[in-house]
Amino acid sequence: ITFEMTLGFYFKDTVKKIVLSNVISSLIMTPLIYLIQWGGDYFFIYAWGLVFAFTMAVFFIYMDFIAPMFDTYTPVPDSPLKTAIEELASSINFPLTKLYIVDGSKRSNHSNAFFYGFFKNKRIVLFDTLLDDTCNPLLGLDENGNKKQFPSGEDDEGKKKKGCNQEEVVAVLGHELGHWYLGHVYKPLMLNQVIILGMFYLFGVLVKNEQMLADFGFPHGSQPTLMSLTIIFQYMFGPLNKLFSILSTQLTRRFEFQADSFAVGLGKGPLLQSSLIKMVADNLSFPLADKVYSSFTYSHPPLLERLAFIRDEIKKQA
Length: 318
Known about the structure:
59% of the residues lie in helices and 6% in strands. It has helices at residues 7-38, 43-66, 80-91, 166-181, 186-206, 210-215, 225-236, 238-265, 269-282, 291-297, 303-317; strands spanning 73-75, 96-102, 113-116, 122-127. The chain has a 4-stranded mixed sheet, with helices on one face. The two termini are 36 Å apart.
């Protein structure tokens, strides 16, 4: 991946992230510390409830209020691309309400697409780096937002063409919407909540050990809640966090293959293959990776593994 940020944009972006991170941390840590001190033996239930409610609240407001602080989300105007995506969503009963393009190119050449939203209010976001000049509807508007003729797709002399064409973009979304259709969004969410509840319970057991805190330099009888959270969650739970990270990676990789299979079932197999090749080339990603290493560290399988899997799925579903 190559980064396109100017120095001024980088510092401005960093300051925003630091301020926002401190605000969010304060909003969650203050009531969490109070609940731990007030909740008695069953504080872990109250603490988990707070974290769950806070997480859901952030999910609800993030794309409408937080994300626009960092990037510009432009509604996709009427265009062949919009029509094709709406037809895909309709074919699998995906409740699409809005479609956006985000200006990811101001940060890097990384290309992506994703959906978000709860219940019947789903939205899709396309990175502008995912779209080539033949299908990007924002290139079909003049400075006043009026329609003009779409680009012909002919490359400027000496300029390498980047991005995916309309059919390939729809194939990528076939994969992404497969995550929704197969329930890949809610399964990790529920699993994470079970893990968080269990870790709060273990914290309650460990924090009662005065000798443990004394070994870290705190006097006997003291229970500094904030430092106890830091020591136990960051250091003592370190091996557990690593184990959960590996399990999460394995689950995510499995979901990626399942979503690829779903896209093949929609008839998008060859187009998904070509789009993956283009995205890896545009992102300057290395297509090869050690199979053992990648299986424990790569949330997405390497390109060659996915291409081989899609090829086999095309044969199976033929």
